[in-house]
Amino acid sequence: MTVTDAAPAAKPASRRVASRAAAVAYRYGLLVVLAVMLVVFALLRPAFATFPNALIVLQSVAVVGVVALGVTVSMTTGGFDLSAGACVGAVVMVTALTMVRFNLTGATAVVAGLLTGLLVAAVNVLLTVVAKVPDLVATLGTLFLFQGLALIVTGGQSVAPGMTVDGAPAPGRYTEGFAWLGGGTIASVPVPVVVFVLLAALVYVLLNHTRWGRALYAIGGNPEAARLAGIRVARYRALAYAVSGLCAAVAGILLSARLGRGDVGAGDPYLLQSVAAALIGFAVLGANRPNALGTVVGALFIGVVINGLTMLNAPYYAQTFVQGALLAGALVTSYTLRRIR
After folding, report:
1. Alpha-carbon distance 23 to 18, whole Å?
2. Which residues of 172-196 are buried (b: 16+ CB within 10 A; e: fewer)?
3. Which helix (H) or strand (E) is 189 found in, with range?
4. Nearest-CA neighbor of 55 among 240, 197, 239, 174?
5. Given CB 3.0 to 4.6 Å as the disulfide criterion, which of 55, 138, 200, 246 pairs with 133?
6. Chain centroid to CA 224: how far?
7. What is the CB-side half-sphere exposure of residue 76 using CA atoms within 13 A?
8. 128-163 pLDDT, tens digit each
9. Mean pLDDT of the chain, nearest integer
10. Cα(121)–Cα(246) distance, rounded to whole angstroms?
11. What are the coiled-coil residue ranges (predicted)?
């Protein structure tokens, strides 16, 4: 073999090596980064690698994770629920009003919160499925609608036990049973963490082991082909937004129980974090599509970063920057490395 013959042969070999390296990074890169962060934070702050701190991390991501699971389901059909954060905030205010202002039971507050989530979902379905408005624009409109509605109903004020209503103290308070949802434990595990794990398992089974999940993915891949195959596209898109609304409602109930009051704008931070968790999940094990396991890992990823940086006394604005950098890295892993592979 001459030198000129060896040169072309070396190019395919180098390409194969590059392709294999890209495939490994594509499937396992995010998990490796997560493992490295765990080790680094544990070495820098030994208290990080303790069971109590692990529970703190899990509890901190429980609400974000529940919202992100709903956003994930909405994304399977090619949609994008930007109203999830506003739904969380609206449910917080509704549950607080139910118990504090109207002096009703905690169970009634839970039902009112779930109905609020379904109401948000119904508006999204009306705009996207019936009126054919693009999902991003429609859910953005729903976001502003329910943010404003929560402010109008409460007069822009927080709802807390002992607040003044028409010149007199509010008659109700948060019930013990409802407060347990935010601060109670089951076998030493916080209730929000248990709820997060159970919902994650349910969404995983829905998307991966039922015909409904296969139909949702089919619609997200090609809605016209799904329609020609006999799938009722409108019905499944409505189902996706209903699941997203219910997940946001559950998250709002957990957040309200943890806060013990209805704070204006309580749900605002959860939109970006939940979307980030869902998008980071695209890069887990090379899934490159919305999936429950990836979303759980994405939520834990964000929780570990925030907890570790907090223990290192990093300023809050640095945490936001790091979250953005991680999201960008996950998207590069999910899209750029896939094309290289």
Report:
1. 9
2. bebbeebbebbeeeeeeebbbbbbb
3. strand 189-190
4. 197
5. 138
6. 28
7. 31
8. 999 999 999 999 999 999 999 988 988 888 899 888
9. 89
10. 8
11. none
